[in-house]
Amino acid sequence: MNYLEVANSPLMFALCGIVIAVVVVQAILFLRTALRRGKELGMEPALMKKAMTNAAIFSVIPSLPIIIMLMVLSVPLGEYFPWLRLSVVGSALYESMAADAVAKSFNLSGITDPGFTLPIFTTAMWVMTIGIVWGIIFNIFFMKSLDKFSKKAKESNNAFVPIFSAALFLGMMSIISTPYMVNTDRVVGIISFVCAAIGAMTCGSVAKATGIRAISEFSLPISLLIGMAAAVVFTQVTV
Amino acid sequence: MNDNNTELSRQQDHAFTERINFLGRYTSIIALLGMFSIPVMVSIFYDIEVNFGGMFAVGVGLIAMFAPMAIVENISYYPVMGAGGVYLSCISGNIMNMKLPCALSGMKIAGVEPGSAGGDVISIICVAVSSLVTTFILFFGMLVVGEFLAPLLSHPVLKPAFDNIMPALMGAVAVPFFIRSPKLAATPLVVSIVLALIMGPTVVQRYQSYILPCIMIL
Fold first, then answer.
1. Total Cβ atoms within 10 A of residue A25
2. What would the pLDDT profile of A208-223 be if each residue is shown by its tens digit?
3. A79 and B177 in contact by Cβ < 8 A?
């Protein structure tokens, strides 16, 4: 039997659909708990609603390239398994790497090799699953202790902790962003980094000057689009 | 009166921590079982003999690479996103390019600090909404939209836009934070720029997960 018949079978759809449903239910449960907790802390419902709207609108743009990945991966792996993997955990890079490693271990040239069979496909699913679950396993065993430990640290040492966590946070931001700032091999990346940063700062000051708060609330999607547009313009001009 | 209030808020804090960890743990276990049920069911249903030896030979390389990375990442995300945010985003994925910036901009809107009680709440709200939106979009992407959306998105004129989502995102998210607290940001910023210049940007990206905690401690 051709493995794609299995990969695109109703059984596959049902199995993947169940897992995605679990994740949706999980998100809703957490959302409900957080909203209740926000009310308990005396947070303004309007602000929480704004944060939700912003999250929803912002998430659309980075979701679009995932659709392309879905198209690409669904050629060798069928429609449903990539659908699951890209909705849940996985990243585009990891999925293609893992599947490729499996194909190579069966002496094929890669995932698009016509020699791909049902046992190879099943093995690929196994390996892709085993490789990605470690963060989840860590959470199951250790997150609670980490959470308790850090909450206790916060209670005992009030003055130091906020500075400490702010420093941690800024350290994280700098190590993630500097590779884009100084990569002279990809000037277009620097351009779009700088333009997006200018966009974000401008949104902030324009919002302050005009008093229109919506501008600062949507500054992330706005400046993301500015940075992306700058990349398009730059490529058009230089090519 | 005041004492009663702090006592009450401490109890509420505790109840919330318990509830989030309870939810997080059990939904994670269920999701994990669900994920493994797919290869298991397919193997049983189609009577496929799985060569576990060969499978582990391939798997070990991936585990060696991804397991330590996943653990280090979770510990690094925790101070910013809180336990709830990490539980959720670990399962729904796309942390760096979506969940983290999303949570941060939500905190800015709500005027709460990362790591505070309010920050944890906003982080969960944003990560949950973001993950619902992605799931929704991918569902339609799989069903219909992909057929005409994919050629549009990979159009040569628009392609650089989607290739540069990450730098644009980091510019928009990180720079305002650097400017807001220049003193605290200076050290890690200088260290990571120097690292990136010496080792080359791609090397830093590859070992990001390992460098991340070191810089954070600095």
1. 13
2. 888 777 777 777 888 8
3. no
